[in-house]
Amino acid sequence: MDRVSYHRLARRELNEAARYDESESPGLGSAFLDEVERCAQAIASFPEAGPLITETIRRQVLLRFPYALLYTIKSDRVRVLAVMNLKRRPMYWVGRE
Q1: Quick one: which H or E segment has residue 59?
Q2: Cys-Cys crosslink for 81: which of 20, 49, 74, 96, Cβ 3.0 to 4.6 Å?
Q3: Distance CA 93, CA 97 (A)
Q4: What is residue 2's predicted lDDT score, i.e. its pLDDT?
Q5: How far apart are CA 93 and CA 82, in angstroms?
Q6: pLDDT of residue 90
Q7: pLDDT tens for the chain, residues 1 to 97
Q8: Which H/E stretch holds residue 68?
Q9: pLDDT of residue 1
Q10: Which residues contact 5 (CB under 8 A, 6 or more apart)?
Q11: Is the residue at 71 inside a domain?
Q12: How far apart are CA 23 and CA 36, in angstroms?
C-alpha cells in the first residue's frame, strides 16, 4: 500500500499550519511539510503501526512538531482525516470519513 489521500479539511489544516509556521520562522513551514510527508510515507509503509484511538481511526505523532496525523486504513489506501494540532481541541475531527 503506497497511496495516501487527505480529507479536504485535513488538507486545509496542513496548509494553514505550514503557512503559520512559515510566518513564525522562514523555512519552518517547509520543514513541517517535509515531516508530514515523512510521516505519511511511514504510515503508507506500515499502516497498522499507529495506535488505534477509536475502532477504526489510528494516530501517528509527528516528530519535531506538536501534530498528529489521524487516519483510517482503506482497502487501497490510507485516508488522512485530520492534521491535528495536539495543543488544541482534541475531538474536533470526529465525524470525518
Answers
A1: strand 58-61
A2: 96
A3: 9
A4: 57
A5: 6
A6: 66
A7: 458 999 999 999 999 999 999 999 999 999 999 999 999 999 999 999 999 999 999 999 999 999 999 999 998 899 999 999 988 776 666 667 7
A8: strand 67-73
A9: 47
A10: 77, 78, 79, 80
A11: yes
A12: 18
Going by C-alpha positions, the residue among 72, 80, 59, 62 that lies closest to residue 5 is: 80
Torsion, Cα of 27, 14, 90, 43 (10° steps)? -100
CB 77 within 8 A of CB 4: yes
Which amino acid, residue 24? E
Place of cell 496542513: 14
Strand partners, 68: 61, 84
pLDDT at 92: 63
Q: Which domain holds residue 8?
A: 4-85
Domain count, the chain: 1
What sign has the CA pseudo-torsion 74, 39, 7, 51? positive
Q: CA–CA separation, 16 vs 29, rounded Å?
A: 10
